[in-house]
């Protein structure tokens, strides 16, 4: 048995690059940064903050959602699989790229927060978008029941 499962929470490094295949399928790619905090060991050694950059690849509905709603600086929760591919560069050297193929994504940035230079998200999230908690739209009228004998 084997498992290839990745869970990441991090910040988007740049707006997604989205392209459409000839068949009309959307593919998005974007970098995600995860950061381990700095800390001090018991012997006094200081370990600095460390940031890892992950190359995310999103397909179909997730790619379209990312194109509309994900911007540089947003915080994301993603689940997916690690995939490594290789290619030959212009000099003929073999290069390797490790990517996270995203299966699910949740946007963790508050809805009203907009990264500098980014358009505000519009209501009506498409398929693959996370459910945002909704505030109560209707307030219940306050009832003045001073004669209630509640035990608490």
General description of the model:
With 152 residues, the chain is mainly beta. The chain has a domain at 6-36 and 51-107: OB fold (Dihydrolipoamide Acetyltransferase, E2P) (Beta Barrel), CATH 2.40.50.140. Helices cover 7% and strands 42% of the residues. The strands form 2 sheets. It has a 5-stranded mixed β-barrel with strand order 1-3-6-8-7. A two-stranded antiparallel sheet has the order 4-5. A hairpin with a 5-residue loop joins strand 4 and strand 5. The model is unreliable at 117-146 (pLDDT under 50).
SSE layout and pairings?
Blueprint: E1 6-12, E2 17-20, E3 26-36, E4 39-40, E5 46-47, E6 50-59, H1 60-69, E7 75-88, E8 94-107
Biased composition (Polar residues): 134-145
Subunit structure: Homotetramer.
Organism: Bacteroides intestinalis
List keywords for this structure.
single chain; 152 residues; mainly beta; OB fold (Dihydrolipoamide Acetyltransferase, E2P); five-stranded mixed barrel; two-stranded antiparallel ribbon; 1 helix; 42% strand; NA-bd_OB-fold; ssDNA-bd
Question: What's the quick description here?
Answer:
The protein is mainly beta and 152 residues long. Helix content is 7%, strand content 42%. Mean pLDDT is 82; it is low at 117-146.
What do we call the CATH topology of the domain at 6-36 and 51-107?
A: OB fold (Dihydrolipoamide Acetyltransferase, E2P)
Model regions low in confidence, pLDDT < 50 over at least 5 residues = 117-146
H/E series, N to C? EEEEEEHEE
Rg (CA only):
22 Å
Helix percentage range? under 10%
The rough form would be described as globular
**Main β sheet profile:** 5 strands, mixed, barrel
DSSP summary, beta strand count: 8
Could you state the CATH homologous superfamily of the domain at 6-36 and 51-107? Nucleic acid-binding proteins
Q: Alpha-carbon distance between the termini?
A: 55 Å
Task: Indicate the mean pLDDT.
Answer: 82
> Helical region count?
1
CATH architecture of the domain at 6-36 and 51-107: Beta Barrel
CATH class of the domain at 6-36 and 51-107: Mainly Beta
Beta percentage is: 35-45%
The strand order across the widest sheet is 1-3-6-8-7
Q: Structural class of the helices, strands and pairings?
A: mainly beta
GO molecular function: single-stranded DNA binding
InterPro entries: NA-bd_OB-fold (IPR012340), Primosome_PriB/ssb (IPR000424), ssDNA-bd (IPR011344)
GO biological process, one term: DNA replication
Organism: Bacteroides intestinalis
């Amino acid at each position: 048995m084997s498992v290839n499962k990745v869970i990441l929470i991090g910040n988007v490094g740049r707006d997604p690059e989205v392209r459409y295949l000839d068949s009309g399928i959307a593919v998005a790619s974007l970098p995600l940064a995860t950061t381990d905090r700095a800390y001090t060991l018991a012997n006094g050694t200081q370990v600095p903050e460390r940031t890892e950059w992950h190359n995310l690849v999103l397909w179909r509905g997730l790619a379209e959602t990312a194109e509309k709603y994900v911007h540089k600086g947003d915080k994301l929760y993603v689940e997916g699989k690690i995939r490594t591919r290789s290619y030959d560069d212009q000099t003929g050297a073999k290069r390797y790229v490790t990517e996270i193929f995203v299966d699910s994504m949740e946007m963790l940035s508050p809805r009203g927060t907009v990264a500098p230079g980014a358009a505000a998200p519009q209501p009506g999230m498409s398929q693959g978008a996370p459910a945002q908690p909704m505030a109560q739209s209707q307030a219940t009228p306050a009832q003045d029941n001073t004669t209630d004998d509640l035990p608490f």
